[in-house]
Backbone:
């Protein structure tokens, strides 16, 4: 599998040809460098995301030793305490309980009420970009919009928001394949600092509740169940990290794809009603989250290959979103694509709880850019971040 090399800059620049080769070679392949089984077809990824024989964790059923795995090193503990108490890395019954409680505070009505704020902020950010004659679309629009929105939802004061993005970036470094000790050390430090900050903020909200998500999480209860202090901290970090990482990268990946497909950009500029379908197609075309991992809790079989309990599966979202068995002409960007069952927001019990908010944010920034910068153009070729799992750019230089 020479073509599939998640550390090769050429692969990172464009992994989709390698995915096509991977799909042609079969439905499941073992990848020695990471010790994972790669699943690349849409049907398999979609089915396995819903298969309860797989889990984001195994510790609700097995010890590390029973599962044939080694416990994380003690110096990484702050990261794992934070990460392992968030609902993304839990399985039922804990996942069910926490998601139910979070849903009480994170309702469709709450998200819908944010629309005016989101659109107003997007207009301000784009106007500022236009007024100064251009800049970095990532730093000037793509990052500040979702970070401000989720911080506003959580009730994090504006004066406290500067460290949020760096904390998030350092924590998310641990989700890459085979992270280095330097990456782990940064993630641990960010986990401690972010947790300490939220611990104090939660204590303040207990004394003086407000009309914000943290106050809502404190108040949320169901049949005697409440979120523990650690679950609240982990939930806030998860909502912030997941609540902006995908949106930031979907924005810059999407606009870079538009600049490289001028016929589709022209169609979008001529018809702004395409915005909704354009967002779905851009998330499919260059997927912000390329890989999602699951542990095999009970033996499974994929196309005649038995994958044993204790193994780890890497579901390749980027490959699944380019599967020609599901998407006609998958390598073609088609903003009017109607049948678009992409899995960029995952599926099953771990389907992204923030997907409606992400769509509102993406629509707000895209609409503002189409209206206020109708001739927006790329001024320099961007550099890809040296990451595989979370796919993004270092920046996107533009001018109106």
Residues:
């Amino acid at each position: 599998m020479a073509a599939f090399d998640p550390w090769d800059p050429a692969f990172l620049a464009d992994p989709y040809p390698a995915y096509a080769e991977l799909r042609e070679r079969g439905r499941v392949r073992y990848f020695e460098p990471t010790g994972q089984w790669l699943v690349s077809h849409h049907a398999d990824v979609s089915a396995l995301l819903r298969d309860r024989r797989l889990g984001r964790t195994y510790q609700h059923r097995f010890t590390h030793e029973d599962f044939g795995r080694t416990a994380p090193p003690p110096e990484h503990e702050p990261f794992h305490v934070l990460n392992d108490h968030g609902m993304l890395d839990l399985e039922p019954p804990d996942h069910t309980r926490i998601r139910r409680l979070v849903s009480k505070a994170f309702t469709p009505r709450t998200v819908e009420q944010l629309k005016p704020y989101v659109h107003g902020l997007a207009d301000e950010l784009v106007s500022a970009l236009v007024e100064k004659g251009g800049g970095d679309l990532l730093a000037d629009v793509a990052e500040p919009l979702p970070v401000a929105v989720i911080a506003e939802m959580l009730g994090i004061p504006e004066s406290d928001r500067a460290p949020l993005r760096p904390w998030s970036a350092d924590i998310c470094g641990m989700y890459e394949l085979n992270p280095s000790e330097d990456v782990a050390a940064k993630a641990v430090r960010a986990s401690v600092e972010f947790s300490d900050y939220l611990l104090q903020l939660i204590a303040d909200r207990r004394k003086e509740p407000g009309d914000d998500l943290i106050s809502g999480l404190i108040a949320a209860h169901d049949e005697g169940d409440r979120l523990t202090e650690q679950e609240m901290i982990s939930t806030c970090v998860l909502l912030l990290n997941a609540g902006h990482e995908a949106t930031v990268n979907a924005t810059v990946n999407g606009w870079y794809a538009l600049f490289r497909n001028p016929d589709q950009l022209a169609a979008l500029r001529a018809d702004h009603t395409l915005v909704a379908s354009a967002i779905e197609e851009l998330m499919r075309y260059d997927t912000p989250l390329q890989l999602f991992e699951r542990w095999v809790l009970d033996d499974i079989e994929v196309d005649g290959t038995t994958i044993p309990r204790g193994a780890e599966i890497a579901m390749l979202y980027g490959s699944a979103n380019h599967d020609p068995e599901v998407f006609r002409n998958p390598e073609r960007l088609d903003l009017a694509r109607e049948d678009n069952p992409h899995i960029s927001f995952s599926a099953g019990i771990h389907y992204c709880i923030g997907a409606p908010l992400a769509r509102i944010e993406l629509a707000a920034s895209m609409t503002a850019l189409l209206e206020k910068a109708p001739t927006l153009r790329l001024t320099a070729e961007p550099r890809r971040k040296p990451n595989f799992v979370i796919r993004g750019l270092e920046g996107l230089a533009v001018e109106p």
Q: What stands out?
A: The radius of gyration is 21 Å. The domain at 16-25+49-399 is CATH 1.10.630.10 (Cytochrome p450).
